[in-house]
Write the structure tokens for this entry.
Amino acid sequence: MFVLEETILKKPSVLYKDTFLEWLSEAHAENTYIFWDYNTVKNDFQSFVDSQLSKEIMCPIGNVPESVYWIINNNVMLGRISIRHQLTDKLREKGGNIGYQISKSYRGKGFATKALELALVEAKKIGLNEALLTTDRNNYASQRVILKNSGELISDLNKLNDHELLKYLISINHIN
Ligand SMILES: CC(C)(COP(=O)(O)OP(=O)(O)OC[C@H]1O[C@@H](n2cnc3c(N)ncnc32)[C@H](O)[C@@H]1OP(=O)(O)O)[C@@H](O)C(=O)NCCC(=O)NCCS
């Protein structure tokens, strides 16, 4: 039984190994997250979890600190959302401060909208005053997720070229 209001964000943990692996299989079936080899992750899950946690403190050159959260409901890992603490020129064009994904079987139930709401609270704790989010022009679902979290479109649609992503800003100051 999934109650949307009971959705929580958790730092990566071995506790969610089984459902994380189901999430990864579904992601691979969509040809996403293929940089994580299923068997490597499965066989040394602790190392994988550690690598996700370390993104918050140890960044390769050119990367910024990133807090990774797993979206959990009813003890099931059903998606991920991450907060990049700073922006680079690259992230300003693609990626922004917050990125998210929900497993295909759990889409259309409000989980991304709820997860973004929760992530904004975490972003405030990190010290952000606003969050930049970018999305494909044809990613209607993601645009709705952002708009429902008070995102403001800052791209000038008349000047946007075909390759550019839409940019939205969400003010975080008002969040408790
Ligand atoms: C975008 C994504 C995170 C949305 O997750 P979700 O949990 O399904 O989103 P929600 O259930 O909170 O729905 C948000 C809105 O999108 C709409 N929506 C969901 N799936 C949709 C679809 N396939 N087509 C059109 N609208 C859709 C919902 O109806 C809802 O809008 P509404 O309130 O007006 O009804 C999910 O589709 C996903 O993981 N996609 C692949 C990764 C991705 O695109 N990430 C975002 C990168 S910017």
About this structure: The chain has a mean pLDDT of 96. The longest strand covers residues 76-84.
